[in-house]
Specification:
This protein is of the alpha/beta class. The protein folds into two domains: about 30 residues; about 140 residues, Response regulator (Rossmann fold, 3-Layer(aba) Sandwich). Helices cover about 45% and strands about 10% of the residues. Helix 5 crosses helix 9 and helix 6 packs parallel to helix 7. Pfam families: Piwi.
């Protein structure tokens, strides 16, 4: 058993065995506590320390005294910021989320994708077709124009196959705006090789999509594609939204 100090640790991810919806929801609930919930937890901890003879004796030995309530101060609630898109502005909901608006409205500036490369293993061809269909049906609402890609199917899923195919695809076209790769699962070796090639050896904006994130009902694929298009627009120099910053 490895004992870690909670205040000095940060959760960076879950293993594949833990990635079920219930676990993720529980983790998110722990991470997004309201101020009131934080207060209740702290006061409960202080109460437990006070009611524990061992803890009280230890603090007394150190010459420490803990109040049973935490320090209170006057707070200030900032007004909501207006989010600006190209044709309209709005105030976000209480949870400060505006994903729905940016996927259904035209961004401040949207980059057209006319020359791009799509690489995937042959067995994922049906998934790639669903991905392209979702791209065609969702890009217009965001103000993006996405043309047909140059498609390269891989015979296997080895790292070398991805690298060789990408090198070939980038070398055969004069100007490639974007490389998109579909990987069969979360593989750090494939992801690392693709990013190293596209960031160091043949610089080009790249987007790697885990096939597992696309599997499921059509609504799930559509949601993933919307987020991917937002990322692509940013990577190509587009601007999704803005806020008013007065002098």
């Amino acid at each position: 058993m490895v004992v870690l100090v909670p205040e000095l640790t940060f959760l960076t991810g879950l293993s594949d065995l833990q990635k079920n919806s219930r676990t993720v929801k529980e983790v998110m609930w722990e991470m997004t506590q309201s101020p009131r919930q934080h207060y209740m937890r702290l006061t409960s901890l202080l109460q437990q320390i006070r009611d524990s003879p061992e803890a009280s004796q230890e603090l007394e030995r150190w010459g420490l005294h803990l109040d049973t309530d935490i320090c209170r101060t006057q707070g200030h609630i900032l007004p909501s910021e207006r989010i600006n898109l190209r044709h309209r502005s709005f105030f976000p909901e209480e949870d400060l989320s505006w994903h729905r608006e940016v996927t259904k409205e035209v961004s401040i500036s949207a980059i057209s994708v006319n020359s791009w490369l799509l690489v995937y293993p042959r067995r994922l061809q049906p998934l790639a077709k669903d991905l392209l269909a979702a791209v065609r049906s969702t890009c217009g609402a965001m103000g993006m124009q996405v043309g047909e890609p140059t498609v390269q199917e891989l015979r296997d899923e080895r790292v070398e196959s991805y690298v060789k195919s990408i090198r070939s695809g980038l070398g055969s076209q004069e100007k490639v705006q974007l490389l998109m790769c579909i990987t069969p699962r979360n593989r750090d070796d494939v992801y690392g090789a693709i990013k190293k090639l596209c960031c160091v050896h043949a610089p080009v904006p790249s987007q790697v999509i885990n096939a597992q994130s696309l599997m499921g009902h059509p609504g799930k694929i559509r949601s993933v594609v919307q987020k991917v298009l937002l990322q692509i627009n940013c990577k190509l120099g587009g601007q999704l939204w803005g806020v008013d910053i007065p002098l």
